[in-house]
Prior knowledge:
mainly alpha; globular; 433 residues; single chain
Amino acid sequence: MTTSKVRLNQQQATREGATSMARIRGLRLGVLRSRDARLSIELGLATALGPLGGFVSNIVIARTLGASGRGELAAIVAALAVCEAVLAFGLPDIVARYIAKGIIPPGSQRTLAVGAVAASIIPGVVVALYCHSWSFSWPISIGAALLVPWTTATVIGRGVVLGHHAYRKLTASQLVGGIFRLLAPLTLILVDDPTENMGLAVVLSYIVAASIPIFWYRPFAGRAAPVRQVIPLLRESLIVWPVYAAWPIYMYLDQLVLSAVVSPADLGRYAVCAGIAQAPAALASGPRQILLARAAKSQNLDEIPTIAQSFLAAGIVGGAACGFLAGPILEAIFGPEFRGISAILGLLVAACGFDIALGMLNTGLLAVGRVRSSAINQGVALVLTAAALPIAVSLGGSIIWAAIVRLSASAVAFSLARLNVRQFSRSQESTSD
């Protein structure tokens, strides 16, 4: 009798396992064949123009302004990126989720955007002073300051567009921004003596261009909602805020730290590698936005780990290839000042693979309400980098140590996020049983 029961249990477990695998395969096929998947591919392909334009911009700036000029621009771009994330107050993802569920009070996005833009004015002034401290002229510094509230409104508007599932508008934004990013840097070649001011003007131009399709959608049309109606959204966004802000801060923290402890030329070399390595992150932007909307609606994370691990594997393989093979290519393309940086590029490409996978997992956790887990995962990467990077570099380490710290922090944070997703999936299976 005991043997029969054991065999019966084994057969039942086998059937349940086969059913589970069939369900997962069905989910994957459904994802691949769905309209959202097609739009995700379109958005990903449009987003690919950004990395292509960034690569061209890297080459043009390195050739026309040299490593020092590239380093000065990197310091400003990093500051602008951090402002964009911090001053959005976590609103884009929250607005997208509430709109996708159809439970947002009318006019809330307008009220929230006005408040966020107002809060970004003083940081904009700080950005102007920071730009001028790097010897940029006052007119271009003021232009960078005005971009701070502009991008704050843009990223919140992007959340509105995403919540309405208007993926074609997001695709248009990526297309316009990518085309400008590809063509605008070429103006530096057409002048006899290009300056850092002209380089920053080019950067500001393609950031503004990418926002035009978002505002064309009129994401903040209609009457503003009373402040009391948006307080619950604002309260929830402030909970999400550390997660939302930690990601770009982490992406640019190494360059911000290096700007204070290394020469502009070394910062320029590192920034070139970082710019190339971060290109795949733009390709993952489309799938991430689609996954956010899907997971928020289904409250299911089954397909996310597979997608995340695919990006991770590609990043590790790509990093190894760059580390061993990219040296002569980098020198030929960017110039002799950029000789000997292939190892840095390889480490940063592998780190980007972990970053993308981490972002996918955190997106899923955020969509199903595991905000605290997502915040801890991203916070771990941020804290490790902030603590270790200044020590490694200030004690005489070269910029390659910054890349090693970045890779280590990304790997630790990814491992923690993968554990959180596995725990959530097991809890869902237990509930369904």
